[in-house]
Sequence to fold (449 residues):
Amino acid sequence: MAKIQTPQPVRGTQDIFGEDQERFQHVVETFERVRRLYGFKGVQMPVFEPTSVFARSLGETTDVVSKEMYSFEDRGGDSLTLRPEFTAGISRAFLTNGWQQHMPLKLSTHGPLFRYERPQKGRYRQFHQLDAEIIGAGEAAADVELLCFADQLLKELGIADGVTLQLNTLGDAESRDAWRDALVAHFQAHKAGLSKDSQDRLERNPLRILDSKERQDRPIADSAPDIDAYLSSEAKEFFAQVTEGLDACGVAWTRNSRLVRGLDYYRHTAFEFVTDRLGAQGTVLAGGRYDGLIESLGGPATPAVGWAAGIERLGMLLEEPRPEKPLITVIPDDPKDEKVALEIVSVLRRAGIVTDFAFRGNTKKRFTLATKRGSRGRLVVTADESGKGIPSRQGHKIRINEPDSFEQANSSLIDVVLEALKSGYNVVAHERAETGYAVDAVLQASNIE
RNA sequence: GCGAUCGUAGCUCAGUUGGUUAGAGCGCCGGUUUGUGGUACCGGAGGUCGGGGGUUCGAGACCCCUCGGUCGCCCCA
Fold:
């Protein structure tokens, strides 16, 4: 028989399972909880959009657009792109749904994004982000609220230690353009001293030379003019309001005048929460103000701010998550007892008890499984010769034990389980078993049909 | 796209300068033991050594190509 080649996953994709899945889930659940505290509405977006949505808003010359997008033609001949980020799609939705009426609109979402990049740890071709945006608010208070949200999220995830908020302003459109011209002039004058990468950047993305890691670029980048000299008084005032607001909220920040954004649409506030624990993938949450974006998509001039955070990266920073364990495993003592056991399982689950049903193998195997899954207690269902048990069948009793507490039969777990069983049965009798670390009980159906 | 490094059982890895039937631990399956089943002991299954080509009497080890992982650059969350 010819052996067929097993399929490989697509490069840079991941199957998230076990502990990774628990980390992922914890990040998303914490995000969902905190965003409600701040009054952000959830929203779901399509995973693909017309290519022009991203091409126009991100800037044609950016790396993301020019070489990292998953773009394809559909059967109707339209060029579509798997979303490489959230902001452009949300802006498009804002326009096509007439969400102007809800301004200022606070939105949040999370889900998969796609970028054709070289995979590394914490960087995938299909990756996942949290996202928060405030659309239609030009006030610095919107920036402050968004940053407080981010700060609280990181704190509640327990990863704020070792993470610093770096803050900068790119000024309004005029400030930014004037600064950019000055930078280009400065770098042009020192072009010969720049690294090859940075010489390329001079054409495409001169702002990026500022945070170059190339040693030979540092003196030139460090001596480049700061934005401050080019800020209009309005832009200066705006940034001051943001920093004062952060101080009022108790959010720690540091000014990084070398912090810039890669995408064209950013104005004013730019920020990154950075950790030193993830190597080259140190940025854990980043964003800024993008007042020009919606206009560039053909809409009315609409101020907006937002951020995004990598779920995988946040998950990697989390403390060891405690695994999900069933509270109790129900074990029929004999195949004949399975139906009754299932009935009990249903009653427990409906009463809110996390219950596992051991359905494979002999009784010993079922106990082994209960141990392996880490359930705190076992509930064994056995036939009861006294005939006092669950009516309409021949009579059953249960035995509950908790292996971790051999000495204490009257543990809280046993009480909790007995209490839950009362929602479906009358517990007519229960007593400590002869072995000393278990409780036997007889159940009687409480509502007889 | 560039540079470095790695790829042996389901998992983590060992396999000495190329040399007979490729090993261990954990996990899995079966059995014995045990205080309700933790533990301990015995046995078993499972590998075309990422894939393809080459050098050689002989390759898991050497060479080339290719596909993946990891780290850095680029870019970015």
Remarks:
- Residues 44 and 233 of chain A are 39 Å apart (CA to CA).
